[in-house]
């Protein structure tokens, strides 16, 4: 808002023969993806009425869609699902793959962490930022 630019909200999804368990029974994956995007955009507009939010629903892998979208942006901001170290390692991290391929600055916002989690305890009670 301060810079007078829009927030481009991108949701990437891919069709699967068997929808993920998170897709409610009887719903098409595309319809579910649209609803997720609409809900996120609606929350942003309610919280920041002056912010212009541009929604994009892309049928592609998350990594490919995000790397392709960076050409139209100054900064990529990625959220994490908070899979944890083991699951993230086994499943692969979208964020890590996007960061490795990106030619633009990337900000990673981790899920389910508090401000206190942003600091590591050090000797003598001094905290170091990650």
Explain this structure:
It is a single chain. With 130 residues, this protein is α/β, with parallel strands linked by helices. The chain has one domain: HUPs (Rossmann fold), CATH 3.40.50.620. 32% of the residues lie in helices and 22% in strands. The protein contains 4 helices and 6 strands. The chain has helices at residues 29-47, 62-69, 85-91, 94-101, and strands spanning 7-13, 53-59, 76-79, 106-109, 119-121, 127-129. It has a two-stranded parallel sheet with strand order 1-2. Strand 1, helix 1 and strand 2 (53-59) form a beta-alpha-beta unit. Helix 2 packs parallel to helix 4 (94-101). The model is unreliable at 119-130 (pLDDT under 50).
Q: What's the layout of helices and strands?
A:
Blueprint: E1 7-13, H1 29-47, E2 53-59, H2 62-69, E3 76-79, H3 85-91, H4 94-101, E4 106-109, E5 119-121, E6 127-129
Parallel strand pairs: 1-2, 3-4
Antiparallel strand pairs: 5-6
């Amino acid at each position: 808002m301060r810079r007078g630019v829009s927030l481009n909200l991108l949701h990437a999804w891919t069709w699967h023969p068997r929808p993920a368990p998170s897709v409610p029974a009887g719903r098409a994956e595309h319809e579910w993806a649209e609803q997720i995007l609409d809900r996120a955009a609606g929350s942003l507009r309610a919280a920041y009425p002056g912010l212009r939010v541009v929604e994009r629903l892309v049928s592609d892998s998350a990594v490919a869609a995000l790397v392709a979208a960076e050409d139209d942006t100054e900064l990529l901001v990625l959220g994490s699902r908070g899979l944890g170290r083991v699951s993230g390692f086994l499943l692969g991290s979208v964020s890590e793959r996007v960061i490795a391929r990106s030619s633009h600055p990337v900000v990673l916002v981790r899920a389910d962490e508090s401000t206190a989690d942003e600091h590591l305890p050090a000797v003598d009670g001094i905290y170091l930022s990650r």
